[in-house]
């Protein structure tokens, strides 16, 4: 299960944001599978350390550049056959104070990727990483890909939904092909933000008290990065064997976990006792911040029917990721 091998139809790929959390894990997998990879990253959130093992590899090239600069994208994509577009600003909360960041780093950047593909003679297939937040507060759970109307409640979700619309329009107008992946919350080593890192940082600063945004009942699906990358490659290789213009898949685990439970897991991993959980109470009915989707569970039935399934549950993913992040930090 989950061992789909690369085909001859995937030999050269560009990974935007390839020095970042998910991107660098994808680069590891693709390069190990014998695929020639170019990474384009401006290193604003990505880290050179994440890809340093490949810097002198014959099948790897690194281009430090910005997706907001069209020329940088065109140069990086010069020999690519397929583009994995992962680069984006991943901080949902920043949209509450500076929404222009999501417009520039998500919409403008994706427009430049698509413009590059429109003019390219080789790069005609796109794998775009979208997000569960495009669904907003879905009335149907688990939420399937054909749920609608899509009403995102954050500028991050709105920017990603706008990107999806651009991707679809370019596919049908300019002869491109696109695989859109709406992913759940991804956790694992190399992550630089998210609830696990937030809790670890707070508990190291004060091992007696943990401030938790919201009321603690926020419940979402969490996916380990190993499962995430496995699904990406599995779906990409299947998509390449079809004639579809656009395909959309949810990528997530089969269950949920609450913020309160994640707090307990992190406290346990740090071997702490009698920690006071100080819930802020949250906004708009107990969410962590305005724009935070309080409850999320993606339907992955469509993905399961392709022969893939996640290795870890949400709780297993969080426990493993917490252990990996702590081990990673202890090695610094």
What report would you give on this structure?
The protein is built from 9 helices and 13 strands. With 332 residues, it is α/β, with parallel strands linked by helices. The chain is globular and about 60 Å long. It folds into 2 domains: 12-187 and 222-251, NAD(P)-binding Rossmann-like Domain (Rossmann fold); 195-220 and 255-295 and 312-330, Alpha-Beta Complex (UDP-galactose 4-epimerase, domain 1). Helix 1 (21-32) crosses helix 6 (225-240), helix 5 (195-205) packs across helix 7 (259-269) and helix 7 (259-269) packs parallel to helix 9. The two termini are 35 Å apart. Residues 1-8 have low confidence and may be disordered. Helix 4 (155-174) links the parallel strand 5 (125-131) and strand 6 (177-183).
């Amino acid at each position: 299960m989950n061992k789909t091998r690369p085909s001859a139809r995937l030999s050269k790929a560009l990974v935007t944001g390839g020095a970042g959390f998910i991107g660098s894990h994808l680069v590891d997998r693709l390069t190990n599978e014998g695929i020639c990879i170019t990474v384009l990253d401006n290193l604003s959130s990505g880290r050179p350390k994440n890809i340093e093992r490949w810097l002198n590899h014959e099948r790897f090239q690194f281009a430090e550049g910005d997706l907001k600069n069209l020329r940088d994208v065109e140069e990086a994509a010069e020999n690519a056959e397929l583009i994995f577009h992962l680069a984006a600003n991943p901080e949902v909360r920043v949209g509450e104070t500076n929404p222009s960041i999501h417009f520039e780093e998500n919409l403008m950047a994706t427009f430049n990727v698509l413009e590059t593909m429109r003019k390219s003679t080789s790069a005609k297939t796109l794998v775009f990483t979208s997000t569960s937040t495009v669904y907003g507060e879905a009335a149907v759970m688990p939420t399937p890909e054909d749920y609608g109307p899509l009403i995102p409640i954050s500028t991050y979700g709105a920017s990603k939904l706008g990107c999806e619309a651009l991707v679809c329009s370019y596919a049908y107008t300019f002869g491109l092909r696109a695989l859109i992946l709406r992913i759940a919350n991804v956790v694992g080593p190399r992550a630089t933000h998210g609830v696990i890192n937030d809790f670890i940082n707070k508990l190291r600063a004060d091992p007696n008290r943990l401030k938790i945004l919201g009321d603690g009942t926020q419940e979402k699906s969490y996916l380990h990065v190993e499962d995430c990358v496995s699904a990406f490659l599995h779906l990409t290789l299947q998509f390449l064997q079809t004639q579809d213009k656009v395909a959309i898949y949810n990528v997530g685990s089969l269950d949920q976990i609450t913020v309160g439970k994640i707090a307990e897991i992190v406290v346990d991993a740090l071997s702490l006792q009698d920690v006071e959980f100080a819930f802020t109470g949250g906004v708009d009915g107990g969410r962590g911040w305005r724009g935070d989707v309080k409850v999320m569970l993606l339907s992955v039935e469509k993905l399961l029917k392709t022969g893939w399934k996640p290795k870890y549950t949400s709780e297993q993913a969080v426990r493993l990721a917490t252990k990996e992040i702590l081990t990673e930090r202890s090695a610094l």
